[in-house]
Amino acid sequence: MASLVLLLVGLRRRKGHTYPPGPPQLPVIGNLFDLPTETPWIKYTEWAQQYGDIVSLNVGGTVIVVVNSVQAADDLLDKRGAKYIDRPPVPFFLVGEVHSSILMNWSFFVLIAPYTDGWRARRKHCVRGLRPRAVQQYQGTLTDKVRHFLKDVRAQPDAQAFRTHVEELQGAIIMSIVYGYDVSGPEDTYLTVARDANAIGQRHFSPGDTLVNALPFLAQLPEWLPGMGFHAVARIGARLGAKMVKDPYLLVKSRMEQGFARPSLTRDCLEELEQSGLAGDEEAETAIMESSGSLYLAGADTTLSTLTTMFAVLALHPGVQEKAQAELDAVVGRSRLPDFGDRPRLPYINAMCRELVRWRPVAPMSVPHAPLEDDVYNGYLIPKGAVVLTNIWAMMHDPAVYPDPDAYRPERFLFTDGKFKDDPRLAFAFGFGRRSCPANHLVDATLFIFVASLLSAFSVRKAKDAQGREIPVDGTHGGRVLSHPKDFKCLIVPRDADAEKLLKDIPDRS
User: Fold this and answer.
1) 139 exposure class (CB count in 10 Å sphere: 0-12, 13-18, 19+)
2) What's the half-sphere exposure (Cβ side, CA atoms, 13 Å) at 51?
3) Which run of H or E residues covers position 132?
4) Which domain of life is it from (predicted)?
């Protein structure tokens, strides 16, 4: 025992190099009690101000390295990307492996899967379906789904119902693109499964979320012991994951056999498989099924946060809303709703979208990387297998780059003459290196058509209580893995008679 204590106390030094600085450690357990759970990006940003751009912690022998600056993240994860292409295991997601009754675990999920040949095949399918040219083909789908969303809001403008409408919209988009399936409503079976699976995944993803992530050996202990409740939760999550991956995939296959499968990423991949003579190849079909499931899971909850946050922005910043609507009226007019052809002439709308991504990044800590071998950076050792976190929040809120970073200001992305000014650093909101999220183009397109269409038809204001007083909207976010706006209410009303006519003329769902 004494030797174990000495080993763990000395974990900050190895092979002549020390680990990056960080908060003091306790013997054996290290920084176990320091790990933040709620909004961890805030605590890591505070530590960055105290310890520097790279901070390290130790939890029971596992080294966690937090990268807090764009320069360090670019140096490590982009320039040395081949070395940091792996993902560290999430012990909770592997708990299913100790239960023979579980059909699968979360290893199908491309975003968190380890670096293997199987991962490369699945990643290839995901990138193929989300490249810029492919996203252009989805513009009609995005426009159609957003307009149905507008009609739903008009039919049910309750001060909190917009959340349900946004959730249905995001699910409708991803299910249509990936599977050619039209959701039946907010309680659609496929949406419900994805929502439940996401909820379990997000609650048990980060090192500080559950004890088994910090102390993996707990997965081998009997389930009847106190504190072992994660076993039951893991079984539920594994079954949801299996259902989420298999059911919509089998639906597409069934429709293809019957000859009426609609265009979708899954159908396209299966048709290519047939043309190559590999139809029925179990490994190839599993790769397609799991890559589609990865897009389904990832898309079910990420953009949801961003779209919901826009309502808070509009309620908090009526001046921003007025500028955007003035631009829309000048470019699009009041006799139609905007489309993607209008985008080059709507710099302020584009700036609003960019600032939203910066102001409230949906994945403030991105997804952890793991080096395949020991690395040394600025004299500090980053050991093989370490959990390397990138603090996107700190990068997007760096006051040296974005003055007054907590303020929402679209003007950051406009030149003095009003033309749109892009910022390549915003790509970092989707991660770094070879494991960055490939959905950035789809998110960008979705956000544009959503904001432009919403503001063409509606005005968003703070809701009022029974006494006629405005109900505050604070714009703050919570969460562990993804950042979500805290509950708020807002009033969504058609702008005028012209807007009412535009909403009325939107065709019903076919």
Assistant:
1) middle
2) 21
3) helix 132-137
4) Eukaryota
CB atoms under 10 Å from CB of 334, counted, come to: 15
Residues 6 or more apart in contact with residue 32 via CB below 8 angstroms = 26, 59, 60, 214
> How distant, in Å, are the alpha carbons of 185, 340, 436, 454 from that of 336?
26, 13, 37, 13
Give the 3-state secondary structure of residue 72. Answer: helix
The first and second tokens of residue 44, run together, are: 């890591």
pLDDT digits (tens, 9 = 90+) for 391-414: 999 999 999 999 999 999 999 999
Which one, of 427, 424, 430, 409, lies nearest residue 348 by Cα?
Answer: 409
Parallel, antiparallel or unpaired: strands 380-382 and 62-67? unpaired
User: Is the Cβ–Cβ distance between 125 and 288 less than 8 Å?
Assistant: yes
CA angle 114, 117, 123 (to 5 degrees): 70
- pTM, entire model: 0.90
Residues sharing a CB contact under 8 Å with residue 287, sequence separation 6 or more, in sequence order:
118, 121, 122, 125
Could you tell me where the DSSP H helices lie in 159-281? 162-179, 189-203, 211-214, 230-258, 265-275
Per the CB < 8 A criterion, the answer to whether 361 and 393 are in contact is yes
User: Domains in the chain, ordered, with CATH?
Assistant: 90-375+389-504 (1.10.630.10)
| Segment 81-127, tens digit of pLDDT | 999 999 998 888 877 554 433 334 565 678 888 898 888 888 888 88
